[in-house]
Amino acid sequence: MQGLMMQQPLLVASLLMHAERHHGEQEIVSRRVEGDIHRYRYRDLAQRARRLANGLAALGIAPGERVATLAWNGYRHMELYFAVSGSGAVLHTLNPRLHIDQVSYIIEHAEDRVVFFDLSFLPLIESLMKRVKSPKCFVAMTDRAHMPKALGHADALLCYEDLIDRHDDAFDWPMLDENDASSLCYTSGTTGNPKGVLYSHRSTVLHTYAAALPDSLNCSARDVILPVVPMFHVNAWGLPYIACMVGAKLVFPGPALDGKSLYELIEAEQVTLSAGVPTVWQGLLSHVAERGGTFSSMRRTVIGGAACPTAMTSKFQECYQVEVLHAWGMTELSPVGTVCSFKGHQSALSGEHRYAVQAKQGRSVFGIDMKIVGPDGAEVPWDGHATGDLLVRGPWVARQYFGTDDPPPLQDGWFPTGDVAKIDADGFMQITDRSKDVIKSGGEWISSADIENVASRHPEVTMAACIAARHPKWDERPLLLIVTRPGSTLTGSELLAFLDGKIAKWWRPDAVVLVESIPLGATGKVLKHRLREQYANYYVTALTERSGSSAASITQHE
Ligand code: AMP
After folding, report:
1. pLDDT of residue 274
2. In this protein, which residues make up the domain named AMP-dependent synthetase/ligase (predicted)?
3. Which of 330, 332, 175, 336 is nearest to 241 (CA)?
4. In terms of pTM, does the model score above 0.85?
C-alpha cells in the first residue's frame, strides 16, 4: 500500500523560495572583489536570481547544460548557485587554483557553455579564451563601470549586471525531476585527469537537511555564518544551501582570506559560525594572538578538509571560547560524512579526554553509513584500535564520475574513500592514513603522480617519487625524491626551475632530495609508505632547525 502524502520533488530552488518567503529580511553581506562591502537581503537574492535565470534562458542555456563559475565567495556567486541549478542547468564551480592546463581540460570535459568569472581571474580568462572551445561566452561578474577593457574575443565577453538589468524577475522555477543534475565539482584524482562529481537536486537537499542538524554543523536562524571554505570547493560544504534552509545571515569573505581581513569581518558582522580548513584558521589565530583580541560573537567553527590538530582545538576553546567542530567529508560525499559532536555520556569529559575525542573526525550523520575493511574485504571491528580502508554509502555519495566510461568506483555498493581509519565503540571515526597517493596542501589537492611525471621528463632524472611531508602551516607539502643518472651534476634547484611553468606554482615541491635509490615493491611500484616513514617529518625538522637546512623556502598558495 502506498502512503498518501504529497509528491513534492526535493529541488534546489525550493531552498531559495523558502528563504525568500520565510526569511526575506535576513541579510547577506559580501566583501566584494571591487573592495567594498555589499549588503542585501534574501528577498533581493531571490529576485536577482530570477532575473539571472531569465538571462540564462536568453543566452540559450538549455536544461542539463553546464554553466561554469570561476569565483570567490560572494552574493553574485550565490545568485548563480540558484539561478543555474534552479532553472534546470548544471552549476559547475571551477577551482581557480588549478593549473591552466587542468582548468582548460575540465571546461572542455564538462562542455561548459558559459563561464562566469570574478575580475580577479581576468588574466586566467584571457588565456582560457584562446584555449577552450566549448563556452560560447564569458561573463564578468561586475557592473559596467568595472568592466575590463576589450579583450581579444570581446564579443564573447558580457557584463553580469547588464545581464541582470536587462531581464525582469518574473520567472517560475520549473518543476524538475529531483534526480536531475544540479551541480558539478571536479576533484583531483590520484592518476589521470580530474574527475567530475555530479550532484542531483535530491542529493543536495537531503545533504542540506542532514548537514544543518544540531549534531552536524548545528545551524539555525539565529546564526551568522561565514563560509571561508570556497564556494568552488564542494559548494562551500553546502553552507549556501543550509543558510537558505534555516534562514541564517550569511557573510561572504570574497578574496580576502588572510587572518586580519577575516577577523575584521567576523567582528563587524558578529559572525557566530564559520567553516574552513586548518590552514586558514592558523592565519586567523596568529592574527588574533598578535593583536591580543577576542571573539565577541563567534561560538563555533567547523574545521575539516584536513585533520584538525589538537593544539588548534585547544587554542580556540580555551583562549577564545570558540567550540571546534571537527568534520570529515569528500567532494564525492557532497561533502559531509562525519562530524565530531559529543554524545551525552561524553559531555562531562574534560582536559585531554575531551581533546582525544575531538581529535577524531567524528560519527556519521544520518544518511551516511560507513565501515572499515581489511585487505580481504572483511569488516574490521569498531574497537578504536583496528584500522581498515574506509568505505561509505548513502543518498549523497557519488556512484560514478561524470562523463566517463570507466567502471564505477563502488565495491559492492560502497564507495572506497581512499582514507584509512579506525572506529571506536561509540561510532567515532578517526583517519589514521591515506591509501590514495595525493598530497593535500592548505585544503587543496596536489597530484604526486603529475609532479613525478613532469620531473621524470628531465633528461638527468632516472626515477622520481613525490610524497606528502607534514607541514606546520599547510598541513602537507610535496617533497620530491629523485635518483639521477650516474655522474649527473643536477641540483635540486635546477630541477625545481625545470618544473616551473609545467605545474601550478603552489604545487612546486618545497624541497628536492637526491637519493641513491627509491624502494620498489614486487610489482615495481614505488613503496610510498616506506618513503613516508622516512621523510614525513622532513619539513617539520627543517623548519625547526631552519638555519643551514636544505629545505627550500616555504612556498605559498597564491
Ligand atoms: P576533498 O574531496 O577535496 O574534500 O577531500 C577529501 C579528503 O580530504 C578526504 O578523503 C580525506 O583524505 C581528507 N580529509 C577531509 N577532511 C578531513 C579531516 N577532518 N581529517 C583528515 N583528512 C580529511
Report:
1. 98
2. 19-402
3. 336
4. yes
In three-state secondary structure terms, 376 is coil
Residues of the chain short of pLDDT 50, as ranges, are 547-558
465's grid cell: 617519487
- 3-class DSSP assignment, residue 394: coil
What number does the ligand 1 atom closest to the CA of 438 have?
12
Distance 329 CA to ligand 1 centre (A): 6
pLDDT in tens, 9-48: 999 999 999 999 999 999 999 999 988 999 999 999 999 9
Q: Give the pLDDT score at 296.
A: 97
- Number of CB atoms found within 10 A of residue 48's CB: 22
Q: Kindly state if the Cβ of 234 falls inside 6 Å of ligand 1.
A: yes
The predicted pLDDT at position 270 comes to 98
Using most ligand atoms within 8 A of CB, pick from 93, 184, 330, 422 the residue to mutate for ligand 1: 330
- How many whole angstroms from 398 Cα to the centroid of ligand 1? 15
**Model pLDDT, residue 154:** 59
User: 314 CA to middle of ligand 1, Å?
Assistant: 21
Atom of ligand 1 nearest to the CA of 333: 2
Instruction: Determine the pLDDT at residue 550.
Output: 40
Say how far apart CA 109 and CA 27 lie, in whole Å: 37
Our answer on whether the CB atom of 419 is closer than 6 Å to any ligand 1 atom is yes
Q: What per-residue confidence (pLDDT) applies to 71?
A: 98
Structure confidence at residue 443 (pLDDT): 87
Write down the pLDDT at residue 150.
65
Q: How far apart are the first and last CA of the chain?
A: 58
- Ligand 1 centroid to Cα of residue 392, in Å, is 13
Task: Note the pLDDT of residue 544.
Answer: 78
d(CA 288, CA 274): 15
Catalytic positions, written as ranges: 187, 332, 440, 445
What domains can be seen in the chain, in order of their start residue? 12-202 (3.40.50.12780), 438-557 (3.30.300.30)
Using DSSP bridges, classify how beta strands 137-140 and 157-159 pair: parallel, antiparallel or unpaired: parallel
Cα-based angle 434, 506, 419 (whole degrees, multiple of 5): 10
**Separation of CA 377 from chain center:** 29
434 CA: nearest ligand 1 atom: 12
